[in-house]
Design a protein that fits this description.
alpha+beta; Rossmann fold; 251 residues
């Protein structure tokens, strides 16, 4: 059994705040109800407790687990996984996420980026068949974000788990994805699939001759790619000059 303590839990999706500073305690063995209308934040709160959603800020303490090690291990412990296997998997995930040096630190004293990595560790330690990731690297600085993007891609390759990854960062999508779907205003506008490499461990860069109709727009402009599916690229260049007709031959 477990006591669950929620402290100042907050979840933001861009400009929209789904959960605003919630705090409550679910006692050991209690049948606890979250009641409210659609869109009030109850499902988002439940997903954060389960480790399926990463909090923007705040704490989730399960069975008094103040340190990182117990926080990541909780899904396995609740499933009755043998202790030795729990220790091995927690150590493996902590090494992948580069948080092995903080396993015995209290979660409450971590930075926002480190807490995000802990929550990510709790989600992936279960070896799920599919990952659903909604900008999991958003709170990290640029340098570490790039490193973690490579680590998550390597984790995907090792586990062979289907991964759906949401991001607004076009370079991140190109770095990590096998297939990219570009959406704009609720419409799927483009598809791009990375060519398969002869070597399973090789990650080919996008080809240099990408056309704008097949590749995501990599410019910093937030506007959609210039040639969406079903549209025709405009031709702004001047038409070629026609050569003058040869003079008629003399009789």
């Amino acid at each position: 059994m477990a006591e669950i303590v929620i402290r100042n839990l907050r979840k933001e999706f861009g400009a929209f705040t789904a959960v605003k500073g919630s705090s409550f305690t679910i006692r050991d063995g209690e049948f606890f109800m979250l009641l409210g209308p659609s869109g009030c934040g109850k499902t988002t709160t439940l997903r954060m407790i389960a480790g399926l959603e990463l909090p923007t800020s705040g704490e989730i303490l399960i069975d008094g687990e103040e340190n990182v090690r117990k926080n990541i291990a909780y899904p396995l412990v609740s499933q009755g996984v043998p202790k030795a296997e729990v220790q091995r998997k927690v150590a493996e995930v902590a090494k992948i996420l580069r948080i092995d040096h903080m396993l015995d630190k209290p979660v409450g004293g971590l930075s926002g980026g480190d807490r995000q990595r802990v929550a990510l560790g709790r989600a992936i330690v279960r070896n799920p068949k599919a990952f659903m990731m909604d900008e999991p690297l958003g709170a990290l600085d640029a340098e570490f974000r790039e490193i973690m993007a490579e680590e998550l891609r390597a984790l995907h390759d090792r586990m062979h788990a289907t991964t759906v990854y949401v991001t607004h960062d076009q370079l991140e999508a190109m770095q990590m994805g096998d297939k990219i779907v570009v959406m704009n205003h609720g419409v799927v506008e483009q598809f791009w699939e990375k060519p398969r490499s002869p070597s399973p461990n090789s990650r080919n860069p996008p080809p240099a001759n990408w056309s704008s109709a097949s590749a995501p727009n990599t410019s910093p402009s937030p506007t959609p790619p210039p040639c969406a599916a079903g549209s025709k690229p405009s031709n702004t260049s001047a038409p070629p000059r026609s050569s003058p007709s040869p003079p008629p031959s003399a009789p």
